[in-house]
Amino acid sequence: MTWLLDTVSSWNINIIASYLWQNVTLQTFVQFVIFYFVVIWISLIVWVGRDISNRTNSIFLQVISILIVLFLTPLGIFAYFLIRPWKTLFEKYYAEIEGNLDILAESITNNLVICPSCWTQVNLHFKNCPNCSFELQKECQDCKKLIFHEWNICPYCGKKQEKEKLVKKGKIEKKKEEKFVKKEIK
Ligand SMILES: [Zn+2]
Ligand SMILES: [Zn+2]
After folding, report:
1. What's the rounded mean pLDDT across residues 70-75?
2. What is the CA(124)–ligand 1 centre distance, in A?
3. pTM, 2 dp
């Protein structure tokens, strides 16, 4: 029985081998190579489309990049590597943030702030901007030290700061009262 199985299996292998030998001709080999290139080509076009949209928002560059790979076959990818922007948009964005952080760190170490009116760098302790005279800080209503407008309480003397509009109103009311008192005295 075993000799029968052996002959059958060796016979099968021989049949498969000869079938392949007869049918894998140059034509099928070329077909396979073409198929392989087309798969790589399409994958590269998809990849370039994704890669370039991560690197630039310019539609012109995006179209050119895809056309390069489309018309220069898969090897156009090398041309694409030469023309594509060096950094991705994310990397650019990150570098920008880093640059801004550097400016911020420099401002802090040099006691500088930006004037909200004219955008020049001014000393943290200035009352008015030397460039546009914008009032950067106000005086505490009690101890007259310089504090920021947003602060509700003076950190030096603890005086609660009345809102500026209220202060003006208060002054007007006081004047009215004074006039009233003067009239009464008269
Ligand atoms: Zn200014
Ligand atoms: Zn104060």
Report:
1. 82
2. 12
3. 0.47
